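Ticket #4471: structure export looks truncated?
Reporter: QA, pipeline team
Priority: medium

Steps to reproduce: submit the single chain below to the structure queue and open the exported record.
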Amino acid sequence: MWHKLSRTLVLKLFLSYLVVLLIGAIVLALVVEIVIPSAFQRHMLSMPSMMGAMMENMDMFSGFRSGVNEALLIAASFAALTALVVSVWMSRRVVAPLKELTRASQRIAAGQFDQRVAVRGYDPDQRDELAQLAHAFNQMAEQLEHTEQMRSQLLGDVSHELRTPLTTIKGSMEALIDGVLPATAATFEQIEQEADRLQRLVNDLQELSRVEAGAFALIRQPLRLAELLQTAAESVDTQFQQKGMTLIHQWPAGLPVIQGDHDRLLQVLINLLSNACQYTPPGGEVRLVALLLKDEVVISVKDNGIGILPEHLPHLFTRFYRVDKSRSRQAGGGSGIGLTIARHLVEAHGGRIWAESAGVGEGSTFTFALPV
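Actual output as written to the record:
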């Protein structure tokens, strides 16, 4: 217990003061012990001849007092000097980590996100505030560096996503003007598809900005979950039929009525179902499952598709994160925004969302739970 308490900042400061006082007292005692005999003897020898016992006692007392005062003055000077040196040394040891944090934070403010500070004696079970502060600072710096990397990646992804349809549209229009490309319905349909792709990307970015800023309102109303799930399944039915996939519905007849925003929850369901369809090979199977567990309704989208490596699972709901960037792009995927939006919408309803997968080729399950 004392070992744990001694690691707190308050006790560190108290102990540093106590050490300074003890060292000062020890130096004072040692110097007094050394100086008093010579000082007393010098004062006694400098006294005039003594006349009588009374005079002798008074002169001896006067000499003793002068000797002690001189010894104390010298000892106090040495003790003060020693205490000053020790206090400066100990203060620097306590303040040094804070100065290091200050310098690192200034460099991070200047854009150098790779800065880290030394963590001395960190133990989550002990109360060393400076070590905990340094550990938290490093975590913050690591997250900032990761965010900056994701921002840079976003710029590259968005520029690529914008460049591809713009190039196609521009090339098609130039070919139409030059008469190289015939003005047929198929040509205009291709141009329209590329324009739709641009619009989806812009809409996703705008939606992400709103949900992360909390600048959206939930229109809560009583929702029959069975009807909501059926609507979501019907919305993606064409997409599943085009890939020859099967969408299986599994939920009990007595699902409760919940309070929620119909359009937002439908958006979450369609996003999860569309992702399952996109990353499951043709002829695959997706299950939309719902059940009531205690005071929550749990909705899962399970597929037997390509699966996800375990190291990717914690990052799937991070904005702009994609497991396989090249594959997502070739398959017409987005920029890793949909799952982030889904997470914010589920959390706005007081729920939680997570992903599970046994590995590559083992399929994946995306699940979210809402309070009843």
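Status: closed, not a bug. The export was complete when the record was re-opened. Leaving a note from the reviewer for reference: The first strand starts at residue 220 and ends at 224.
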